[in-house]
Amino acid sequence: MGSQVICAIMGGGRGTRLYPLTKNRCKPAVPLAGKYMLVDIPISNCLNSGLNRIYLMTQFNTASLHKHIRESYKFDSFGGGFVDILAAEQTEQTSDWYQGTADCIRKNLKHFGAKGDDLFLIISADQLYRMDFRSFIEQHLSTGAALTLAANPTPANRAPGLGIMRVRDNLAISEFVEKPKDPKIIESLVIPDSLMDGIKRNEGQKKVLANMGIYVFNCKTLYEALDNNATDFGKEIIPSLLGKVPMYAFIFDDYWEDIGTVAAFFNANLDLADEHPPFEFFEEEAAIYTQPRFLPSSKVTASTLDRVIISDGTIIQKSALKRCVIGLRTIIREGTVLENVVTMGQDCYETFEEQLHNDEKSIPPMGIGKNCRFTNCIIDKNVRIGDNVVLSPEGKPDLYDKDGIVVRDGVLVVTAGTTVPSGTKI
To answer: Where in the chain is the domain with CATH 3.90.550.10?
Structure first.
């Protein structure tokens, strides 16, 4: 690849659909699979593809994300690589936040230092997938495209929430519809048999090509496309370029999950605990990188574990866990039963003096107490849960919100830093 590739990772908006996980953090900083953050996925995909000029654009609740990037991605002085954070900023020209994906890139063009033949790889920061971007870029160059979109063959019933494209046999895009609702339009966008060779088939399931929000732009095309007030790539920029510049699809027929809702986050995490998960972290040739923490090995005492991911520094005492993801430094005390539970762990351990002080005030210790029963729950960071606590979303309305406990998408969430007294039953 003769052209220089500039990787631009978009940190996203407020993440309202992921609330309360985004109450005090931005979407890219939401913990994933016990020890990672969502942002580790796109950064690792870039690094594993030999791309190390990476810009991350952020704006909401960014402190934990910035700390994670600073402590995780350190490059030597000679390789020229970096992960640079570009936070939303007020200037003489504007005092606005990023108004959308296109506006985010537009406001940072001055920081990229792009040259005429450079390529831009534009990526979302809230998706779970593993892609070798080299194949993506090679196709872009070989077709003479001005813009190439990553496209995932997706069940047609998901089309109303996605941008959908129709392509010719040479993968040139002939039509693009953002979030179609009309069944007739969706039917017209179903992938034809002539393009189904090599695409996984599901019996009786029609598929469409969904925009993954991952783009390769020629530098000139991107600058010209952003020379206006359009704010969003999917809704405005891509439709405006259709038929004006060579635009192609790069078909990515593999696991891809947009972690946009609490339900999507919850299910994606629990799927990782299965024997044959759709996304696998155990791939040495395409590792997912994160912050080195130098924590002790986990310790499990007389417990029953079935499909459980256990992160470093965890202590599990005489408990029963089924299909769980256990985050860093999580402490689970004896007699507790967890089923379909994601814990995000703790940022630090309590000292002996701190425990004595909290005991005097009848404050539960950090972690999960004795003889608790949790089902279908997310336990966010740094919580204190007393003994004999029962938690389940069953029977609770969506958006139930009381004393730091929220029900969203059928999942009960104990928000970060919450204290749940002993004997609580929800």
So the answer is: 5-271
